[in-house]
Write a structure and sequence with these properties.
By secondary structure, the chain is α/β, with parallel strands linked by helices. The protein has 7 helices and 9 strands; from the N terminus they run E-E-E-H-E-E-H-H-E-H-H-H-E-H-E-E.
Length: about 200
C-alpha cells in the first residue's frame, strides 16, 4: 500500500499544493489531474524521491519511505514524460542499460521479446535517433515489460502514441493491476482499462 499524508510541495516561493492525502492499494490505479503548473509532475517526482516535500509523509506498507530507503525504490518504476533514451544507442541497448540501472539483469532475448511486444519488431537494433517519436516512446515504455516493480509511476505515458499503442498500454496496465500491482499516473489523453475503475486525484 502507498500512503501519502498531509503532503505539501513548493516550486521556489510558490506553493503547489498542501494538505494532500491519498491511499493506493494493491490492484488500484489513480490518475492525478489538474491544470498545467498545479504540481502533477512534482507530486510524482516527490513520490519517487527526486524531490523532497515541504511537509508530510510518504509511506509504503505502513512504513515511512525514508526508513525503507532502497527497499521502497526497488518496488517502484518511474517513467517521466521525457523518454530518457540515448539517440546513438539502439532500442535494444537502451532497454538493457535502463534495466541494468534499476538492478535488473536483462539478456538480449528478453529485451528483444519486450521490444517486439511494444511493436518494434525489425527496429530493435536501429539507433533510436532514426525512430519516430512514437517509436521512441515505445522504447521507453518497454521498461514496463521487464522487472517486477509493484508501483508504476507514469508521467504522461501516452505522449506521441497512436491509437494502437494506446490500446497496448491499456492492456499492459490491466495486466499489471491483475497481478496486484499499483499505478499512479498523469495524462491529457483518454485512458480506459476494461473492468477497472480509475480513481482520480485533482490538484486545484
Amino acid at each position: 500500500m502507498l500512503g501519502v499524508g498531509n503532503l505539501a510541495c513548493s516550486r521556489g516561493d510558490h506553493r503547489l499544493f498542501s494538505g494532500l492525502n491519498l491511499t493506493l492499494h494493491a490492484g488500484q490505479i489513480m490518475q492525478v489531474q489538474g491544470e498545467n503548473g498545479k504540481g502533477k509532475t512534482s507530486l510524482l517526482r516527490t513520490l519517487c524521491g527526486f524531490l523532497q516535500p515541504d511537509e508530510g509523509k510518504i509511506s509504503w506498507c505502513g512504513t515511512d519511505v525514508r526508513e525503507l530507503g532502497e527497499e521502497y525504490f526497488a518496488n517502484l518504476l518511474y517513467l517521466g514524460h521525457h523518454n530518457a533514451i540515448k539517440d546513438e544507442l539502439s532500442a535494444l541497448e537502451n532497454l538493457r542499460i535502463s534495466a541494468g540501472l534499476s538492478g535488473i539483469v536483462l539478456d538480449e532475448n528478453q529485451a528483444i521479446t519486450a521490444l517486439r511486444r511494444m511493436g518494434l519488431k525489425g527496429r530493435e537494433r536501429l539507433p533510436t535517433k532514426v525512430l519516430s517519436q512514437g517509436q521512441r516512446r515505445r522504447v521507453a515504455l518497454a521498461r514496463l515489460l521487464v522487472g517486477d516493480a509493484k508501483l508504476w509511476v507514469l508521467d504522461e505515458p501516452l505522449t506521441a502514441l497512436d491509437v494502437g499503442a494506446v490500446a497496448l498500454i491499456e492492456e499492459l496496465l490491466g495486466e499489471h493491476l491483475s497481478k496486484q500491482g499499483m499505478v499512479i499516473f498523469t495524462t491529457h489523453q483518454p485512458l480506459t482499462i476494461k473492468g477497472v475503475e480509475i480513481a482520480r486525484l485533482a490538484l486545484l
